[in-house]
C-alpha cells in the first residue's frame, strides 16, 4: 500500500519535475490514499459486521471468585500466525496486550494436520506416541481404518487433559475437541460437558454453552474446558491464506472471544479464568501449477493407489509385505531426481526410520514404512489431469513459518504484555496441569517449561 506514494515522493525528490507532472503525481497520491482508505473501510466493515453478533444472553450470577484455578483452552483451526494482524481484532489483542504471547507463534507437531495436532496439545505427546499419526491411516496389524469418526479408546493413546482432570475428581468439559468422545479412565464424555461433534452448531451457541458451565453450583464448574472452532481452516483451504474471506473468518473468531470475555465479565470471573487461545497449524497457498503427479514415476516404479494412505502434503505408502520398502524408496528417488518428473525435486521420499529426527515421526508401528515430504505450497496427486484449483493447505514440515499457529494466554498466572519465544505445542500439557495444580501423565513436554512462562505463586 505504501509503495506507490513512496515512489512518488522519491520522484519528487530526485528529479526536477514539471509542475503539471507534479499535479498529476499529487492527484495520483490522493487517489492512492482514497483507494487505501476505501480498502481499510471495507476491511473494517467486514470486521464490524461480525462484531455485531455480540448479544448478551445470560443473566448475571453472583460469585465473585472461583474456588480453583480454571482453564479454558480454545482452538481456532488453521489460525496461521500473523492472521491476528489482518484487521483490528480488539478481543484477541486485548488478550495479547494483557497476557502472554508466543512470538512468532506456536510450533505445531509433524504432520501439521488437525487431528495429530489437537491430540498433541491435550496429551503433550508427539503423534508417534499418542497414536493419531494422521487424519486417516490403516492399522497395519488389524487392517482397520482410522477416520475422524473413530472413538474407540484403542486408537487414542496417552492421557488427555480432560481425563487427568476427571481422574483427579474434578469436572472437565470438552466441546468438539478431537478425541473428546473417547472413553478413557473415568472420562466418558458426559453429555452435559461433552456434546457429540456436530459442525453445524453455531459458534455463538458453543460459546454460550461454555458460559453456562459457569452458572453451575461453584463446585460443579469444570476446571478445564476445551473449545473448538473449525475456522479459519476451512476458508483457508478454499481461498488460501491471503483472501478477504480469511479476514472475515478470523474477525468472526475474534468476535466469539469477545462474546466469551463479555460473558465471563458479566459473571465477574474474567480475571480469574485462564484463557489459552491456540491453533493447531498454519496455512499456505497452493496455486501456480505446483503439482507433482505420482503417476509420473511409473517408468521407475508403479505405485498402485491401494498402497497409498495419504498423498500430499504428507505422502504415506504401505507396500504389500512381499515388496521391499527400501527398493520402492530407491526407485522413487531415482525417478524424482532424474529431472524428468515435473516438480520431482519438491518431493523427498524416506523410509520412516530415515526421516529427520526432529520430526519425531518414526517410532509408531502405525506410521507406514514409506513417508514422503512435499515442499511448502506443493501438492501431490495420483495422476493427470488435475484441475488447478487455487486454495490453501497444511500438513507440511513443522519447521515452516507458514505452518505456525498462535499462542495467547491470559489469566492470573500469565504476565501482562509478555512475549515468549516460539515453542512446540506439546509443551501446553504441562503448562495446563501446572496451572490447575494437577499431576499429568508422562509426556514429551519439558517439566521446566511451565516455570519459564508462568508467574510464580508468590
Ligand atoms: C488490561 O488490564 C488492565 C488492568 O486490569 C485494564 O485496566 C486494561 O483496560 C486492560 N487492557 C485491555 C486492552 O483490556
Ligand atoms: C506379492 O504378493 C501378491 C499376492 O499376495 C502377488 O500378486 C504379487 O505378484 C507378489 N509380488 C511379488 C513381487 O512377489
Ligand atoms: C514421549 O513421551 C513418551 C511417554 O513418556 C515416551 O515413551 C517417548 O519416548 C517420548 N518421546 C520422545 C521423543 O522423547
Ligand atoms: Zn485443514
From TrEMBL:
InterPro entries, alphabetized: Alkaline_phosphatase_core_sf (IPR017850), Phosphodiest/P_Trfase (IPR002591)
Gene3D superfamilies in alphabetical order: 3.30.1360.180, Alkaline Phosphatase, subunit A
Transmembrane parts of this sequence: 29-51
Region ranges (Disordered): 1-21
CDD domains membership: Enpp (cd16018)
A cellular-component GO term for this protein: vacuole
Protein name as catalogued: Ectonucleotide pyrophosphatase/phosphodiesterase family member 3-like
Lineage per the UniProt record: Eukaryota, Viridiplantae, Streptophyta, Embryophyta, Tracheophyta
Amino acid at each position: 500500500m505504501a509503495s506507490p506514494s513512496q515512489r512518488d515522493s522519491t520522484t519528487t525528490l530526485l528529479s526536477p519535475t514539471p509542475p503539471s507532472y507534479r499535479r498529476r503525481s499529487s492527484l495520483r497520491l490522493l487517489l492512492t490514499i482514497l483507494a487505501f482508505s476505501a480498502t481499510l473501510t471495507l476491511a473494517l466493515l467486514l470486521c464490524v459486521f461480525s462484531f455485531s453478533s455480540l448479544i448478551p444472553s445470560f443473566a448475571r450470577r453472583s460469585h465473585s471468585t472461583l474456588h480453583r484455578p480454571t482453564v479454558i483452552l480454545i482452538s481456532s483451526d488453521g489460525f496461521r500466525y500473523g492472521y491476528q494482524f489482518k484487521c483490528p481484532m480488539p478481543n484477541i489483542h486485548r488478550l495479547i496486550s494483557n497476557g502472554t504471547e508466543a512470538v512468532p507463534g506456536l510450533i505445531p507437531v509433524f504432520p501439521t494436520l488437525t487431528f495429530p495436532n489437537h491430540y498433541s496439545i491435550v496429551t503433550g505427546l508427539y503423534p508417534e506416541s499418542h497414536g493419531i499419526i494422521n487424519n486417516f491411516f490403516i492399522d497395519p496389524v488389524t487392517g482397520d481404518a482410522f477416520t475422524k469418526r473413530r472413538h474407540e479408546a484403542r486408537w487414542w493413546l496417552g492421557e488427555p487433559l480432560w481425563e487427568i482432570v476427571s481422574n483427579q475428581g474434578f469436572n472437565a468439559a470438552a466441546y468438539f475437541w478431537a478425541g473428546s468422545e473417547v472413553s478413557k479412565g473415568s472420562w466418558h464424555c458426559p453429555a452435559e460437558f461433552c456434546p457429540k461433534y456436530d459442525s453445524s452448531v453455531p459458534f455463538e451457541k458453543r460459546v454460550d454453552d461454555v458460559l453456562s458451565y459457569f452458572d453451575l453450583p461453584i463446585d460443579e464448574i469444570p476446571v478445564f474446558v476445551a473449545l473448538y472452532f473449525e475456522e479459519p481452516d476451512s476458508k483457508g483451504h478454499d481461498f488460501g491464506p491471503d483472501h478477504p474471506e480469511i479476514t472475515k473468518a478470523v474477525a468472526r473468531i475474534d468476535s466469539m472471544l469477545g462474546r466469551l470475555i463479555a460473558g465471563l465479565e458479566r459473571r465477574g470471573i474474567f480475571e480469574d479464568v485462564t484463557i489459552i487461545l491456540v491453533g493447531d497449524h498454519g496455512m499456505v497457498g497452493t496455486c501456480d501449477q505446483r503439482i507433482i503427479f505420482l503417476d509420473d514415476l511409473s517408468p521407475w516404479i508403479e505405485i498402485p493407489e491401494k498402497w497409498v494412505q495419504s498423498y500430499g502434503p504428507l505422502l504415506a505408502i504401505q507396500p504389500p509385505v512381499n515388496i521391499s520398502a527400501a527398493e520402492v524408496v530407491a526407485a522413487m528417488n531415482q525417478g524424482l531426481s532424474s529431472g524428468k518428473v515435473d516438480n520431482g525435486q519438491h518431493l523427498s521420499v524416506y523410509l520412516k526410520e530415515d526421516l529427520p529426527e526432529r520430526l519425531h515421526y518414526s517410532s509408531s508401528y502405525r506410521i507406514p514404512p514409506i513417508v514422503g515430504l512435499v515442499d511448502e505450497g506443493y501438492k501431490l496427486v495420483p495422476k493427470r489431469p488435475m484441475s488447478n484449483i487455487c486454495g490453501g493447505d497444511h500438513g507440511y514440515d513443522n519447521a515452516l513459518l507458514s505452518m505456525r499457529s498462535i499462542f495467547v494466554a491470559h489469566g492470573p498466572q500469565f504476565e501482562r504484555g509478555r512475549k515468549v519465544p516460539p515453542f512446540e505445542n506439546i509443551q501446553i500439557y504441562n503448562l495446563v496441569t501446572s496451572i490447575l495444580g494437577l499431576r499429568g501423565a508422562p509426556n514429551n513436554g519439558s517439566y521446566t517449561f511451565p516455570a519459564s512462562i508462568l508467574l510464580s505463586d508468590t
